[in-house]
Amino acid sequence: MTDAAIATETRDLFSKFDPLINEREALLATGVRDPYAIVMDQVLSPTRAIIQGKETILLGTYNYMGMTFDPDVVAAGKKALDEFGAGTTGSRVLNGTYQGHKEVEDALKEFYGTSGAMVFSTGYQANLGIISTLAGKGDYVVLDADSHASIYDGCGLGNAEIVRFRHNSVEDLDKRLGRLPADALKLVVLEGVYSMLGDVAPLPEMVAAIRKHPNCMILCDEAHGMGFFGPNGRGAYEEQGVEGEIDFVVGTFSKSVGTVGGFCVSNHPKFEILRLVCRPYVFTASLPPSVVATAATSIRKLMHAGEKRAHLWKNSQRLHKGLSDLGFKLGSATPQSAIIAVILTDQMQAVAMWQTLLELGLYVNMARPPATPAGTFLLRCSLCAEHSDDQVTQIIGMFEAAGKATGAIG
Ligand code: PMP
């Protein structure tokens, strides 16, 4: 008896997963590799790894600035490991605040020019913690329908009313805010760059719409904007000139910063109180000393990364043009960020393309519903400032070969 057969015959708390189990079994029975079970046997650089014995170009890492192998970043991590040990074994509010946690919060305050900075163990926890603590029962969280899962989960944990507006629609945002009670407290959550399609939010127009309504605070998630957008790399909100209008910026160390962790920065005078009342901050262990040391070093280097930003932008424009010239349908008509999403018709075609690219030596992310908007199947490419011109040429060649082999392009 197969696992799937067992699953469908025995009703228990796993029964609700049967459709997914069956769909996955059917897909794997066609002989394709499991897109969600890739193992990096060796990582050679921010852009190259060995996967199942084959040297592979990495084009799905969100390692935008290529800081994972920066020699200063790696050295800072090793030093902290030697001097402070492997972990803190404690919460930030008990024994888990070391000098390194203070240093990374100071680096963030300098990077963002804010009076407050709070570091969490992941970006997921930063959204979970900040949103659930700010907006509780009786409050409203107004969010873009394509918001990241951590934003939705923050609303769930806080028990706030969720009001969704159509993706990047200023008109719908305005309309929905207008329907809420004037005296209710509202948190509007935006993302600078949306991770599925790589499109950027029209922040000045959104801020203008929000400011027409009373009692609104604005949180902007810059997970995919930090490092790359704006003169100081703060994010899309800096590039679009709305810094003075955003009450909270949430971000992650797991993309441009090149390690793991999350944060929120703010100028609100009462911001510090969140350290005592934010459950995903209080009731979990703090980041290891080596991680905060690598993050602090990386953030300080990102303040002076103009050349890397320029090269990443060039790579993004070249890949966008190369793929659209080949006839692929992309998530945004023009290059807007370092994420380029190739939209495919169905799961079979997406998996066939993904596997052919892997066999050719290219790793991209495959994304499927419910993570993707409007039920689409996507091959998500994220460029890195360390991709060479030659690698970008090779990548376009691999897409051409895979597209023709699978029938995704003519
Ligand atoms: N926000 C957004 C928009 C994200 O895309 C992600 C991660 N993909 C996160 C938050 C969570 O970040 P982390 O990986 O640090 O948990």
Overall description:
- 40% of the residues lie in helices and 16% in strands.
- With 410 residues, the chain is α/β, with parallel strands linked by helices.
- The protein has 2 domains: 22-58 and 306-406, Aspartate Aminotransferase, domain 1, CATH 3.90.1150.10; 70-302, Type I PLP-dependent aspartate aminotransferase-like (Major domain) (Aspartate Aminotransferase, domain 2, 3-Layer(aba) Sandwich), CATH 3.40.640.
- The protein has a 7-stranded mixed β-sheet with strand order 4-10-9-8-7-5-6, with helices on both faces.
- α4 packs parallel to α12 (289-302), α7 runs parallel beside α8 and α14 (347-360) crosses α15.
- The radius of gyration is 22 Å and the shape is globular.
- The model has no long low-confidence stretch (mean pLDDT 95).
- 4'-deoxy-4'-aminopyridoxal-5'-phosphate (PMP) binds next to α5.
Structural class: alpha/beta
Order of helices and strands: HHEEEHHEHEHEHEHEHEEHHHHEHEEEH
CATH superfamily of the largest domain: Type I PLP-dependent aspartate aminotransferase-like (Major domain)
pLDDT averaged over residues: 95
Question: How large is the share of residues in beta strands?
Answer: 15-25%
Q: Order of strands side by side in the largest beta sheet?
A: 4-10-9-8-7-5-6
Q: Identify the CATH architecture of the largest domain.
A: 3-Layer(aba) Sandwich
Report the sheet with the most strands, covering strand number, pairing sense and barrel closure: 7 strands, mixed
Which hetero compounds are present in the coordinates? 4'-deoxy-4'-aminopyridoxal-5'-phosphate
Please give the number of β-strands: 14
Tell me the overall shape: globular
Cα-atom Rg, whole angstroms?
A: 22 Å
- In angstroms, what separates the terminal alpha carbons? 42 Å
Quickly count the helices: 15
Oligomer: single chain
The overall number of domains is: 2
Q: Please estimate the helix content.
A: 40-55%
